[in-house]
Design goal:
This protein is an alpha+beta fold and about 450 residues long. Helix content is about 45%, strand content about 20%.
Length: about 450
């Protein structure tokens, strides 16, 4: 059922976003009395799964789930229907409308995507609040693994700022570090600023950013696995490790480092529980795991919002998501980071979905992806909404429209660019699947 839930969630999210995006084009087109010939969810290459003509518009569902489209009469679009463009313009055609009306029609989809994200974030903040970890609450600093160390970070560091901007939220600082150029940390009372190297970022991205940075906590045990060597030795939940073989231990990373470096060895562990100290002798197995989980401090805090407070907060969240997505392009197009290899297509995105239904994830992902669609579609690439907007702005500024040949060739160039990007994205998905079986 897990993969089925993931596929259903992905298809539902994409379907809602595509329909609303295309509705953003459809409604102003109809308002300005422009003929819309088709309104499709997914692409109907050669055939449709479903279609029905209502009035002058054919509504349908294609079989290729890579988006959707509305076909507007008198417009050079992905259909490349040049025969229609050879005829005299009709009053109901797109090309017969004033430039400002055509501009509104073309930006309608992007506007709807942005507004949808704003609305979703507003209601998420109103219902759930905003949960995060304040950087100031990390009194023991951060904990990093070997990948985090390649970025120049060390366990115990306290993040002061990234690119000169104060780090107020630990959650955001993690992303800022991946996207930033330099970081300032407090290391043993001394402030150090150092660059975030492309090589370090490459390691982080190749590991999908898993656990390269966390927050440090005391060496306290939350739970002990049944049938584990820790259980047999006498560890119980609530034990706080003080010493191992006489050496002082204060933090969880120090405890795990000693255990992991002591396979097939005997350790004498002094613990404190309920005000009483006791020494436990444990034989570390060959796999260097004894079966205990850390009792991390819950450092999260939640800001709550009234409805009218949530509206501007939702707008701010939408802008923040958009800004982060724009910043990602800096590392995607930097070949040294290898970030382009991590761009996910439909297969990769499906794997990101939870295996059981989660409404908070559903709406959060829809809002994030809606912002992404708005941003990508407004890029000035022919064949995208932004390409049409670019030509329309040229017409409005110069007073004359681009020639039909320019529009047609631009559409072809844009199509080739998009197909190239799709080839890279699908290639990543397929290669990542293949690597699992190698």
């Amino acid at each position: 059922m897990g993969i089925f839930t993931q596929i259903v969630m992905f298809v539902l999210i994409i379907s809602v976003l595509v329909i609303l995006h295309e509705l953003g084009h459809f409604l102003p087109a109809k308002y300005f009395k422009t003929k819309v010939e088709k309104f499709y969810l997914f692409f109907d290459v050669k055939f449709s799964l479903f279609k029905k003509k209502i009035g002058e518009t054919v509504y349908g569902i294609g079989w290729l789930p890579l988006g959707g489209y509305v076909k507007i009469a008198g417009m050079v679009d992905e259909s490349m229907d040049t025969e229609q463009m050879k005829e005299e313009p009709k009053p109901w055609e797109f090309r017969s409308k004033p430039a400002w009306q055509r501009l509104i029609i073309m930006i309608g989809g992007v506007v709807v995507n942005f507004l949808l994200a704003w609305i979703i974030y507003t209601f998420l903040l109103f219902n759930n609040g905003d949960t995060y970890i304040p950087s100031k609450s990390l009194k023991y600093g951060i904990q990093v693994d070997s990948i985090g160390e390649k970025l120049g970070l060390k366990t115990g560091d306290k993040i002061v700022s990234v690119d000169g901007k104060p780090s107020k939220r630990f959650n955001e600082a993690v992303l800022d570090i991946i996207l930033g150029d330099e970081v300032t940390v407090d290391r043993d009372g001394e402030k150090l600023t150092f660059p975030l190297t492309d090589e370090g970022k490459k390691e982080v991205l190749e590991s999908q950013g898993r656990n390269f940075i966390g927050y440090r906590s005391k060496a306290k045990i939350l739970a002990v696995l049944d049938s584990s060597v820790a259980k047999e030795a006498g560890f119980v939940a609530g034990d706080e490790v003080l010493r191992i073989n006489g050496g002082k231990v204060e933090f969880w990373d120090e405890f795990t480092d000693i255990v992991q470096s002591s396979p097939n060895e005997k350790l004498d562990v002094l613990v404190l529980n309920d005000g009483k100290e006791k020494t436990i002798t444990v034989n570390v197995p060959e796999e260097a795991k004894i079966g205990v989980y850390p009792d991390y401090d819950d450092l999260r805090t939640t800001d709550t919002f009234g409805f009218f407070q949530a509206i501007p907060a939702g707008f701010t969240r939408t802008i923040k998501v958009l800004t982060d997505q724009v910043r990602q392009f800096k590392i995607i197009f930097n070949s040294k980071t290898g970030a382009y290899k991590q761009v996910k297509g439909p297969i990769g995105i499906v794997e990101m979905m939870p295996t059981s239904w989660n409404w908070t994830f559903f709406w959060s992902f829809m809002a994030m992806f809606s912002v992404w669609l708005a941003f990508v579609n407004i890029l000035p690439i022919p064949a995208l909404d932004g390409g049409h907007v670019m030509f329309l702005l040229y017409e409005m500024i110069s007073g004359r429209p681009p020639s039909q040949k320019v529009l047609e060739r631009g559409q072809i160039v844009g199509f080739v660019i998009l197909m190239g990007l799709m080839a890279v994205i699908f290639g990543n998905d397929i290669w990542n699947l293949v690597k699992r079986f190698l």
